[in-house]
Structure formats: C-alpha cells, structure tokens
Design brief:
- With 569 residues, this protein is α+β, with helices and mostly antiparallel strands.
- It folds into 2 domains: 479 residues, Glycosyltransferase (Alpha/alpha barrel); 74 residues, no CATH class.
- It contains 16 helices and 17 strands.
- The strands form 6 sheets. The protein has a 5-stranded antiparallel sheet. A 4-stranded mixed sheet has the order 10-11-15-16. It has a two-stranded antiparallel sheet with strand order 2-3.
- A hairpin with a 2-residue loop joins β12 and β13.
- The protein is globular, with a radius of gyration of 23 Å.
- The protein starts with 8 loop residues before the first helix and ends with a strand.
- The N terminus is likely disordered.
Length: 569
C-alpha cells in the first residue's frame, strides 16, 4: 500500500525513523536526472499533446455535479473545497516533457505518481469530460519502456523517470532504498538485491529498480472510469500497454513459488518491511496481480478477445490459490506477507484486505477479515481503517504515516473489497465515517489532509495539507456514492440509487454514461414511508431505486419526470 514512497519524503522526515534519510532525499532530489534516449510509449497510440486551456474552478463550478444533502451541510461544503483544491492541481504537460495529456497532479512534490493518479481519476470520473482525470494515466503509458515496465514516479518537468528508480548499474532486480524496519540502520538497509528463490534471475536485467514497480492498479482505474462514464474508446487504446505492463511484473517480480515481491515502497515506514527483505513476498502486491489479471480478463471480454479473457482469468485463479495456500494463517485467521525463505511474517497490516478486492478470499476467509474490521483492538478503531493493526508493535495512535494512519487509497480498497463479498452496510459505514472525519477536520483546520489519525479527530502526524491529491476521494466520491447513494452502471445505461431515509438529498448535474441528470428525493406525505423523486435528464436510462429494502425500476425518458419510492415498513 505504498503512499508513493519517495513522495512522502518531507512528511516522513517528522517520523524520526530509519526510513527518514531515504524518504527525505526523494523530495529534494531534483537534479541529475538521467537522459533516457530510448523509445518510450511505443504501445500507446497517443504520441503528442494538443494544447487546450486548463479547466478553471470558477468557470466550471456551475457545470460540476452539485450534491444535495440537507442532513449534513458540512459534507457538501467539504465537497466543494475538495474540488477547489483539485482544480489547483490540474496541469498541462511541460514543454519537452513528452507527456501527452493534461493531468491532475498528486499535490506532493515535483513528481507525478502512478497509484496516486489511479485513485485521483476515480473522483474525477464524476466531472468527466470537464476535467482531466483518467487522462493522467496517458502520461504513464506514454513513458512505458519497451519491456513493459512503467515507473510509478516520473519527474513532472522533464518526463523522465525519477533518477533513483533507474537501474543505472544494469544489475539484477534490486531495491535502492531497501527494506528498513522499525530499528534498522538506514545505511545498512539500502541498495539490496532481490534473491530469487526457485527460479533463475530474469534476463535481460530490468530498466527500473524494485522501488519503481509497485501497486499495479491501472486496470482497476480504467474499469472504474468505464463503469461511470461509459467511455469504451479507451479500452482498445490501453489494452496493449496494460498487458505489456502485466508481463513485465510477471517477469521481474514473480518468485519461484508464484508469489510477488515488494519492498519498502508498498508502505513506506511500516513494521512489515523488515520481513520483506531481499525478495520477501507481499500479500498486497500478490493480490494486486490477481486483481490485474481479473481485470484484464474483463477488458479482454469487452474487446471480444475471448481466448485472452480465459487465459487471464485462469492465471488469476491459479495465483489466488497460491496466495490462499501460502499466505493465509489458519490459526490467526488472517493473511500475512512471506519472508524470502517462505515464512509467514507476524505483522498484521491493511495489506491483507487486497484479497477482498481481488476476490482471493473464500467467504469464510472474508468473514474473518470482516471480524477484524470490527475488532477495536486491531482495525475497528475510532476512525477505521488504520494501516497497521492497533495491537502491533510500532502502532502510532496519531497515525505515524503507515504505522496507523487512515488513507483515502486504502479506505477505497477496503470498501470496494467489502462490496465484492456483499458487506454493503459495513462498506457504507466505513465510507461515511471517513467522510465525516475528513469534513470535521476540514471544519477545524480549513483544509483537506494527506492522511488522518485512527484514534483522534485530527489529521495524521505527519500529513501534508491541501491534499487533493487522492484525499479528494472521500468528500467527492464517498459523498455521491455512499451518502447520497448514487452508483452508475454505464455499461447497462443504468443508475442505481441506494436511497436512505432522511432529509432532502440528490444531485444536480450528475454525470454518467454521457448523460447529465438532476434528481432530488424528499420525504413524501402520507401514511406510507416513502420519497418523492423529481428528475430531469437529457437522455433515457434505467433508474433502480432501493429504499428500505424495496427495489423498484423506472424507465427514465428525456425531460422532467416524477416518481415515488415507498415502503410498507
């Protein structure tokens, strides 16, 4: 679950841990970027940027989705603050950078970051095509190496891979910053080669270091984009870049037992890192590769590539079986990382929950993970879900970055994973708790933060301010999807509304599948509990409303209509 490793530099410096020196260096290392005189982005069709004026908040505010939620006006206020901050971070490619699209910047330092960009695209989808969101990923595809590798961190001004993550030494795979643990000496933990167990080191040597190959969730971002926008024109464009990227991960990160290796970059300063040294296998990266394969199968099916769909689905199932065999602890009823020697690490982290998103866990295993989300001694804290279980050595109630902080990225992973297994109420509960936390801290501090404390109504310590950034997920996406309850299914031209009792709620100018829809629900008069729905749409679609356990379907035509959602409860 890396935040983005080098990104966290300035903030992590406050930790006083071994990783400080390494992370701090990333923030200030702006010079000495090596020139990559090679052909990049050969698998992506877009080759150049066509200059376009950047969107401005003051110009577009009246075109953005406008949420209505009378029960929590602070949540709506925080929504608009998130957009205001997000608009500050929309960028055009710098001259000679080789970037091909406008993008939303990660709001951290001078670099753009891959997994941040994936999560930021998820809330930008709701303003598509007004703002750059998914197009941010274009710039990573445009910088893909011929062997399929994509660096998770690229210098914004030059378009060159962050220098520390380039394998200048032409070595076998290694981590330049290593696997520092709680008490490791920084110098002793740097520049460590990966030991491959049960397989020979791959050739030729990778172009990038292990620090650069982390959190492969681009296919997830692409599918989220398609779910909301219905924009299927991207799928054929990203197919080859994604399959080449997947192949590079298989080649360089796969251990002989079929699982995948990672380093400190998964969760910068987590106590888990010491157990991952020199080729240890992460439950997160291994599950993410399962997720990647499953989503490639979905995209392949959409593109009419049935053989490829079966191939990727089979690979996902095979890897999931290995994860369950080797990383699930029957006694502790939890998933754990493995050391390079194959021993289960003892540290309980949020990384285990990637198994839910990737559909790795069985229903019984999912139930055990859910029990820990409700356990106040582990993950069921005041502000769920901390990145490190509260009963683990190194846990910090104030957050401590990846020693307990609550992050938008991992919250979203947990929430979506819970939905995969039917835990919709718990998913909504966690989403709304995080939304409420972000809103109340905004009310206190006037801004949105990089991460939050698991045990107090405050930002994490450390945390960067004005962070939209992926922290825009809660005030934008969680408000629309979990508070108001609107979820798009563009592939079926359907809008699902999980409507809760309460005051007036809805959204003006809600955007999905190319439609612009305004819809408002307010309590109806009469003996039966119900809601009166007023709706205005520019195109037909199917509306499914679920209210107090009763689901109804409505055929929406263009123009203005009224419906009623009632229950006999």
């Amino acid at each position: 679950m890396n935040r983005s490793c080098g990104r966290k530099s300035a903030a992590i410096a406050m930790l006083g841990a071994a990783i400080v020196v390494c992370a701090h260096r990333a923030f200030f290392l702006q010079g000495a970027q090596s020139e990559q005189k090679v052909v990049l982005g050969r698998y992506f069709t877009k080759k150049a940027y066509s200059p376009t004026p950047l969107p401005k908040f003051e110009d577009l505010k009246d075109e953005l989705p406008s949420p209505i939620y009378d029960d929590k006006p602070l949540w709506v206020k925080t929504y608009w603050k998130a957009w205001e901050l997000g608009f500050r971070n929309f960028r055009e490619p710098a001259p000679q950078s080789g970037f091909v699209s406008q993008f939303i910047d990660a709001a951290f330092n001078q670099n753009i970051f891959l997994w941040d960009s994936c999560f930021m695209s998820m809330f930008c989808n709701y303003a598509y095509p007004l703002v750059p969101g998914i197009s941010t990923l274009d710039n990573f595809y445009a910088k893909q190496h011929e062997d399929g590798e994509i660096s998770r961190e690229i210098v914004r001004a030059t378009g060159v891979d962050f220098d520390e993550w380039i394998n200048h030494e032409n070595s076998t795979l290694f981590s330049r910053w290593g696997w520092p643990g709680l008490n490791d000496n920084t110098d002793q933990s740097r520049k460590s080669p990966v030991i491959y167990k049960g397989r020979t080191p791959p050739t030729p040597n990778p172009i990038l270091t292990l620090d650069a190959l982390d959190h492969p969730i681009m296919a997830w971002a692409e599918i989220e984009h398609y779910r909301i926008t219905g924009d299927n024109s991207r799928l054929p464009e990203v197919w080859e870049p994604l399959t080449r990227y997947y192949g590079a991960l298989q080649k360089y990160l796969k251990q002989g037992n079929g699982l995948y290796t990672t380093d400190w970059a998964s969760m910068d300063n987590s106590p888990r890192n010491v157990y991952l040294k020199r080729g240890g296998m992460g439950i997160d990266i291994s599950s993410e590769v399962v997720l990647f394969a499953r989503q490639l199968a979905i995209i392949a099916q959409a593109l009419g590539k049935s053989d490829e769909a079966r191939q990727y689905s089979a690979q996902a199932n095979d890897l999931a079986a290995i994860v369950n065999k080797k990383m699930w602890d029957k006694r502790r009823r939890f998933y754990f990382d493995l050391t390079v020697g194959g021993k289960r690490a003892p540290v309980m982290t949020i990384a285990a929950y990637w198994t839910l998103l990737a559909n790795v866990a069985s229903p019984a295993q999912a139930a055990a993970l859910v029990a820990e989300l409700k356990n106040q001694n582990t993950f069921g804290r005041t502000n769920p879900v901390p990145t490190l279980a509260a009963n683990q050595a190194g846990y910090e109630p104030g957050g401590g970055y990846w020693r307990g902080s609550v992050w938008a990225a991992t919250e979203t992973m947990v929430i979506r994973g819970l939905e995969n297994y039917g835990y919709y109420d718990l998913a909504r509960e966690i989403a709304l708790k995080h939304l409420d936390l972000v809103a109340k801290v905004y009310e206190k501090t006037g801004t949105i933060w990089e991460n939050y404390s698991p045990d107090a109504l405050q930002q994490g310590n450390p945390a960067k301010a004005d962070f939209v950034g992926w922290s825009g997920i809660a005030p934008i996406m969680y408000l629309l999807e979990y508070a108001i309850g609107l979820k798009a299914d563009a592939a079926h031209n359907r809008l699902n509304w999980e409507l809760q009792p309460g005051g007036r709620r809805g959204c003006e100018r809600f955007r999905f599948n190319g439609h612009i829809v305004s819809l408002v629900a307010e309590p109806r008069s009469g003996q039966l509990k119900g809601e009166k729905i007023t709706l205005q749409s520019d195109a037909p679609f199917e509306l499914r409303i679920r209210f107090l356990g009763v689901e109804r379907q409505f055929a929406v035509s263009g123009g203005k209509q009224e419906f009623e959602a009632v229950s006999d409860q």
